[in-house]
Design brief:
This protein is an alpha/beta fold. It folds into 2 domains: 4-177 and 318-327 and 336-395, Response regulator (Rossmann fold), CATH 3.40.50; 180-309 and 397-433, 3-Layer(aba) Sandwich (Rossmann fold), CATH 3.40.50. It contains 13 helices and 17 strands. The strands form 4 sheets. The chain has a 7-stranded mixed beta sheet, with helices on both faces. A 5-stranded parallel beta sheet has the order 4-1-5-6-7, with helices on both faces. The protein has a 3-stranded antiparallel beta sheet with strand order 13-14-15. The longest helix is centred in the first third of the chain and has 20 residues, at 62-81. Mean pLDDT is 90; it is low at 1-39.
């Protein structure tokens, strides 16, 4: 069971900090909240609407889990700062319930049962596609068996494509671009870099990592048939502490670029090892713009590390800059500098779905989310996004960005106090980033 203390904010704010947070949140949300001159809304007094975060908050990927928890906690605080979720019985605050899966799928399934026992109708998870697949399957069975305790699953980063294709579910909603969408954007950039003739593929040995390597081969064959794949490697997920043998193989292969979907410490340790052996090629990554990677590479990463995401701090508009400033005010420690707009959007859209459906019941929320659009131009300049009803894959813009020194052109903000940030090298509108689906969506009961 979850203890009452786990319902508290990660780092309680003082009254002055809470006031500043409410004002900063209003500034970031622009027209969605009201003008900055308006006073913060009164705190909602109703029973909290609990959102369960099932994630590895300890273990080998604890840093990634805690980074997600900070984003979601801030999103919850911002909804509450404007008055909470407005329902027929009165406004109710959101409350984040932290559930530590320790990076284990079996633990996650146990926590799903705990959430059901507590009658929590919304669960969130993302830092493992294998875990997400297990949760989708378990939820389908649970919701059919116990309709009075149904649960909807919000996914912020489990990006294995089958989750919104062959394994799609009316109870599952993905707010991150799936792996093939991300990889398609990355390989578009690589396609135009004719200086690269040899590439190395490396990934984590589970469904997501295997998919990235498989799709990399297919996309490179179609876009750059002249390019040679000089190495391909899958390694155990979360268990490798010394990546020097892998880095030496990459260097010895003569590769000029590496493509990897690695995340968390598996990415940080890999790029550190590559730096230590003197590898001078480029890294085409899904997550190279956070969790210690820029600081680990230092100058060796300038102009050589690319990342792909729905947003980044130097997206280049006033709304984006206001959002970054407000996040830094809430989490001033550079080690906690991990802001992702999709996690903010996910909580915002869930709150809006509850308000539209006038309910927190899972099926009602799912119906309101399916096909819903979100105008995020006031939220970090995200642009418009839509939860595609046919597969529950969120359609949104994407950025490919390149590591540079902070203060250089297009790089106002650095990452984690490292002195290095990212500038946009390719921007895709939502319709450009979209890909066909293979989902046959079952109807909601």
């Amino acid at each position: 069971m979850t203890s009452p203390s786990e319902l508290l904010p990660l780092r309680p704010a003082s009254p002055s900090r809470r006031t500043a947070l409410a004002w900063a949140s209003a500034a970031c949300l622009g027209g969605l909240v009201g003008p900055l001159s308006a006073a913060p809304a009164a705190a909602p007094a109703g029973e909290p609407i609990r959102l369960a975060l099932i994630e590895g908050l300890s273990g080998p990927f604890a840093n990634a889990g805690e980074a997600v928890a900070r984003n979601l906690q801030w999103a919850v605080e911002r909804v509450n700062a404007r008055g909470g979720v407005k329902l027929p019985g009165g406004a109710r605050p959101l409350a984040l319930v932290r559930m530590d899966s320790k990076g284990s799928t079996e633990e996650a399934l146990g926590l799903l049962r705990s959430a059901a026992d507590q009658r929590i109708s919304v669960v969130m998870q993302g830092n493992s596609s294998a875990t997400a697949a297990a949760l989708i399957d378990a939820l389908g069975k649970h919701n059919q068996r116990e309709p009075e305790r149904r649960i909807v699953f919000l996914n912020y980063s489990a990006v294995e494509p089958s989750l919104t294709n062959e394994k799609c579910s009316p109870w599952h909603f993905r707010f991150d671009a799936h792996a093939d969408m991300r990889l398609n954007a990355l390989t578009d950039v690589l396609q135009g870099d004719r200086s690269i003739q040899r590439v190395y593929l490396i990934g984590q040995d589970y469904s997501f990592g295997q998919q990235v390597l498989r799709s990399s081969r297919e996309m490179l064959a179609a876009k750059r048939p002249d390019l040679k794949i000089v190495g391909e490697e899958l390694h155990p997920i979360g268990r490798v502490k010394d990546f020097l043998p892998y880095a030496n193989k990459i260097k010895a292969s003569g590769a000029q670029a590496v493509i990897t979907g690695n995340w968390g410490n598996d990415l940080t340790f890999l790029v550190k090892a590559a730096r230590d052996v003197g590898f001078e090629g480029k890294f085409y990554t899904f997550y190279g713009n956070a969790l210690g990677v820029p600081g680990a590479l230092g100058d060796a990463g300038v102009g050589r590390v690319l990342a792909v995401a729905e947003w980044h701090p130097n997206a280049g508009n006033r709304a984006s800059e206001a959002l970054v400033a407000a996040f830094h005010q809430r989490f001033p420690d550079p080690r906690e500098d991990y802001l992702h707009v999709r996690m903010q959007v996910m909580v915002e859209m869930a709150a809006q779905a509850m308000e539209r459906s006038r309910s927190t019941e899972a099926a009602a929320v799912a119906r309101a989310l399916s096909g819903a659009s979100y105008d995020g131009r006031g939220l970090g300049g995200l642009g418009a996004g839509t939860m595609r009803a046919a597969d529950h894959q969120f359609q949104q813009p994407m950025y490919v960005s390149l590591m540079q020194r902070a203060g250089s052109e297009g790089v106002k903000f650095d990452v984690e106090g490292s002195g290095y940030g990212f500038r946009t090298v390719r921007y895709l509108e939502a319709q450009q980033a979209a890909m066909p689906h293979r989902c046959s969506m079952p109807p909601l009961p």
